[in-house]
Amino acid sequence: MTVCEVGPRDGLQMAKSIMTTEAKCAWIAGLAAAGVREIEVGSFVPARLIPQMADTDAVVRFAKGIAGLTVVALAPNLRGAQAAVMAGAHRVSVPVSVSAGHSRANLNRSPDEQVAVVGGIVAWLRETAPGVELEVACSTAFGCSIDGVVPETGVVRIAAALAAHGVSQIGLADTVGYANPAQIRSVVRAVRAEIGPALVGLHLHDTMGLGIANALAGLEVGIRDFDAALAGLGGCPFAPGASGNIVTEDLVFMLESMGFATGIDLDGLIKARALLHQGLPDEAMHGQLAKAGIPRIFQRAA
Amino acid sequence: MTVCEVGPRDGLQMAKSIMTTEAKCAWIAGLAAAGVREIEVGSFVPARLIPQMADTDAVVRFAKGIAGLTVVALAPNLRGAQAAVMAGAHRVSVPVSVSAGHSRANLNRSPDEQVAVVGGIVAWLRETAPGVELEVACSTAFGCSIDGVVPETGVVRIAAALAAHGVSQIGLADTVGYANPAQIRSVVRAVRAEIGPALVGLHLHDTMGLGIANALAGLEVGIRDFDAALAGLGGCPFAPGASGNIVTEDLVFMLESMGFATGIDLDGLIKARALLHQGLPDEAMHGQLAKAGIPRIFQRAA
């Protein structure tokens, strides 16, 4: 069971203020100390578009020094992927929007054009940095605040095209948080029928309050890799209406309570929340576990 | 699919201020106008213990005038049940705690003593008011903030004792919100194996952020009757740490999105939230749907 923390990337890009590099590094170290083993630490995008990500190179270099941590960096194109590899990221995460409207707004390319960009990144990595992993997140796989309904066949088509390019780690993202549990099950099954084990994970948002229920639905159809953000930070600057990622600590509480070992310690996450709050004092922090406290009767999975 | 609104009872008993009878009635009328067909409108308990419930008689009499609405009132004992029947409630809801500590704190009786009280209410209703329904909510069925872990065998034992007394509507309540989805499935299956269709519903709290996921788990094992509170109001004065009920509008959004017809209109619930806020302006209101708005692509179940 893998919970990948995406707060330092997806969480921060909507933040009202800029978190310092030092504060980011302290937060990332706190997450790793809690047992988080995968962290998406930033994105290699132009600083004029997302100023919160201007120091991603330094953050990747810091995070690389944490033993046992898989350092993930987002890159929208080959240039960004090259920067991620140069900085030392273990894995590059590239977004491909399933809906044309979000693709245009977020990447200024059509979905098919972005699939071709991924093809170029696959080829370059194979040639230049064969040890670096590549994952692709299919954005707006469950609905789009610009285009509306996203047909399941469209998701399957994009996932198949990515798999045909040799991408072996493909995730489905509910970028705007419109998914419901029945849809999660249906889309996961349809995509898996097409690409098999190359479908690895879900990236869920809690816009409508269904994020954790959607994670449960994913769990039930075999997903074992979830993105989440401490305190439910996050959103997408080009998807109006989108709000925070699912809350890492609430997700971990559910998984551990159900007997799934995440390797993550809840007390450690609560401590990491304090570091996040120190570094970003004006940002709203979500999550029920932190409000209610860890129940005395909570038992970690073995 | 039935969503029973319990805000006017479970929601209000923890409220910091007293809602006027007029405001309660306006809120209840708003809920009914949104299509809510069952509302637990109050409880017949001593006003010195829960002053928010002092006007339950008047509220029941008002709610009885709304065509098509099933009016539910909570009663902890025979005297309360008699008052509920006198006021005209269609259904009396009686709590039985599974855990001894909560039973003592909430009812000042042991669980077995309270089962005997239920037996007396069954006999009295049969004799005096055969048209009035009786339901029993098994409190702390998934954990207790006083006693800690609540064994599944204890829940089954209490449910069986209630069924033996002829109670045909039995619900399981996660009074303090400690349940996880795997536990929901397990306890529902164990209780159903013992009492069959007399197990009708779930009463869930969102203390740990798992309330909607727990509802999904219940849905998957055949539960079609859920309690919820508008804006997630609620708690239990004798269960430290307990926070709000699951949010009616978020639950309805999930159910309708998944294709389950609730008969409830989300716009109507948003309007009822405004009435609740007018009547109780200092109370925190929860729920994601109201924050995010109803997505343009939302489709009601047919």
UniProtKB/TrEMBL annotation, chains A, B:
Residues 1-270 form the Pyruvate carboxyltransferase domain. GO terms for molecular function: hydroxymethylglutaryl-CoA lyase activity; metal ion binding. InterPro entries: Aldolase_TIM, HMGL, PYR_CT. Keywords: Lyase, Metal-binding. Gene3D superfamilies: Aldolase class I. Pfam families: HMGL-like. One of its GO terms (biological process) is L-leucine catabolic process. Belongs to the HMG-CoA lyase family. PANTHER family: HYDROXYMETHYLGLUTARYL-COA LYASE (PTHR42738:SF7). This is Hydroxymethylglutaryl-CoA lyase. It comes from Acidiphilium rubrum.
